[in-house]
Amino acid sequence: MKTSILHKALLSNAGAAALILRVPIGLILAAHGAQKLFGWFGGNGLAGTAQWLSSMGMEPGLLMAILAGGAEFFGGLALVLGLLTRPAALVAAFTMLVAIFSVHIGNGLFAADGGYEYALVLMVALLALAVQGGGSLSMDKALSEKIGSVK
Q1: CA nearest neighbour of 12 among 89, 71, 75
Q2: How does pLDDT run across 19-28, given as a tens digit for each residue?
Q3: Mind listing the pLDDT tens digit for each residue in 99-116?
Q4: Cβ 34 vs Cβ 65: under 8 Å
Q5: 3-state class (DSSP) for residue 3
């Protein structure tokens, strides 16, 4: 029996451990995205983020701010829910990779010096979620079962 691509993307045998990883990583990402998009939690908002990204040569700044903030905010919310975990994690991991090389790499490893260690840890955790999926306590699991039973 042929399995759909969506069913494969949602299917996960990760168990409950994925929830332990998904929720805090998702909340952290959503908060960082909210800083960029809405100016919440002491952030600069969309205009300030766009100006900052433009100052680093990431043009057009507004589009880059929307992409980075959106990947973090909406990707983070998706991770918390365990909804489309793999795609959300991949997009957010790519965002962290861009952050590492465009913002942090010149400052060395340690976050205290503006380095890339924090973005690297987030990226690795996101890649783990992309590999294992949302786990048994996720919306992905429920959707996967629903799609699987339709056959």
Answers
A1: 89
A2: 999 999 999 9
A3: 999 999 999 999 999 999
A4: no
A5: coil
Residue 123 CA to residue 116 CA, distance in Å, equals 10
CA distance 131 to 140: 14
Q: DSSP secondary structure string, 77-124?
A: HHHHHTSSHHHHHHHHHHHHHHHIIIIIGGG-S-GGGT-SHHHHHHHH
pLDDT per position as a tens digit, 58-105: 999 999 999 999 999 999 999 999 999 999 999 999 999 999 999 999
Query: First vs last Cα of the chain: how many Å apart?
Result: 9
| Cis amide prior to 87 (ω within 30 degrees) | no
Determine contact, residues 126/89, Cβ cutoff 8 Å.
yes
